[in-house]
Every structure is written in structure tokens, then in C-alpha cells.
Write the C-alpha cells for this entry.
Amino acid sequence: MNAMHTLIVSDVHLESADCRAELLLGLLQSWSFKALIIAGDLYANGGIIGDKQFELVRYLRKLRGKLIYVGGNHDFSRKRVVDRLIGVRPVKRYSWSMGQKRFCVVHGHQFDRFCFVFSEPLIDRAISILFQLTQWMDPQKLHVSGWIERFRVKLSGHFARRARKFAKKYGVNSIICGHTHKPDHIAFLSEKDGRIEYLNCGSWTDRVCSFVAIDESGQAKLCCVSAESRHLSVVPMQTLRLA
């Protein structure tokens, strides 16, 4: 069994047909950890929680003594649902110190200039259905879905830089987010500000899902798991030097 101090997951999107609840449940049951942080968007807007998804909800409820829930753009309109189902109240952000580092977890929608669009349930649902259709019609990502994917990659770069500015403002060494559904691990280096680490947990709705694991010494790594093969891998950290 793998052992870590803290595991962080984001964008599980229960109620969505794309939710990999069974995969996440199996992963959590195979790891030993002292804290589990959900970095927002446990739920989607609309839909029904299926039997396999409800198994994950039951497991999370049992873990509520060591569960921290950071709310996402979908979650704050569902506070009562969250409280009742898993017994944990969402917070806007969660910070702690470990291994001479200051960590902070936020969902990250505050870094997204277009987030107001996805806060409207009907619009959010329509965009989600459109993206699913483009993936089904264009599996090789050559046209529409490929353009969307390239746009998401470009957007995540701007997102990471806004997250870094937030970390600098609040004296954080490691900022951990979700929201973009794109897993990232970047170390920003500058002579003025030193080293600020940015990690994005990715999501649990894609063919490859991801999470952040932090050991007892405060070392963080970004892990990916294939929904098909269940193969686990670690994403290498990028280093960006700033002027």
C-alpha cells in the first residue's frame, strides 16, 4: 500500500456521466494517508448520482474526520447537499505548513476570467454536452475538440501565472488548484521572489485522471492514473525561470 501524508483531488464531478468515481474509490482504498483534500467541484450541475458514484460518497463520509473540502465554482450553490451527503462544510481555501513550506489549496476559479459563464447551470451543462459530442465525433482531436484542447492548454498557462501571483501575495511556497482539468506541476523561479511551486490536480472525468500526493517531508508530486489500464505514473515537474 502506498503511503503519503496528504492526497489532493479535484473536479470529480459526481452526477456527470464522465465521472470516474469507481477509479477514484479504488485509488483511495489502496493508499494510506493522514489527510484528504478535495480541491473543489466534487459535484456537477444537474444529473443524478449513480450507484457507483454513491459508493464513493459513502466512503468520503466515513473519512470526514480527515477530509478537508475546498469549494469550487459548482459547490457553493450546493452547500446543503455537501453538508448532508459527506458531512463536511466547504471552505474557500485551506492553508497549512509542513516541511518548512507553506501550502495553500484553492479551487482556482478565482483565477479564471470566464468563470462566470460556468456558474450558470444551464450554460455549464450545455458546454459540457457540446464538449462530449465533439470528443465522440472527433476522437483523434483533429478539428473542433483539438482546438478546444489547445485553447485549454494555452489558458492553463495564464491560469498558472495568476495562481503564482496569488501565492506571492499570501506568502505561499506551494499553490495547489483544480478547475482547469489540466494536470500541471511547475516551479516558478525568480531572483526577487524565489521559488513558487504550482500544482494542478487535473480531474476525474478524463481517460487519464490525476491527483497530488505530499509526503511527510513536504515534497509534492503529481500522479496520473489511466482509467483503462490503472497504470500509475508521476508527471515530471517543469521549471520556468522568470526575469
Remarks:
- The chain has one domain: 2-118+149-241.
- Residues 144-169 form the longest helix (26 residues).
- The CA atoms of residues 24 and 204 lie 7 Å apart.
